[in-house]
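Final report, Chapter 2: Outcomes

The project's central promise was a pipeline that accepts a single protein chain and returns its three-dimensional structure in a standardized token representation, suitable for archiving and comparison. That pipeline is now operational. To close this chapter, we reproduce one record exactly as it appears in the project archive, with the input sequence first and the structure output second.
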Amino acid sequence: MAERQAFGIDINEYSRTGGINYQLVKSHLGTGAYDFLIAKASLGFTINPLLAEQRQNMEANNIPYATYHFLDPRFDMRVQVQKYFDAVGT
């Protein structure tokens, strides 16, 4: 049996346009169309202003998710990592 690669949808602060239909996402998870959402938590020193709302919706709908930081090489990586941890926790 071949292993199946996990598929996810990337959401970010620009996902406000048209919104995210979390019920539809959940129904697609049930069909195996994809497996999770991944939310951009931060970029450089900027925190995604929709992150708290997105996390609340993903958790309320029992949608598996992860977060990530988009590194800006112009700035100190340690400070960026700390801001990411401040936004999402450890």
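Archive annotation: The radius of gyration is 15 Å.
This record, like all others produced under the grant, will remain available to the consortium after the project formally closes.
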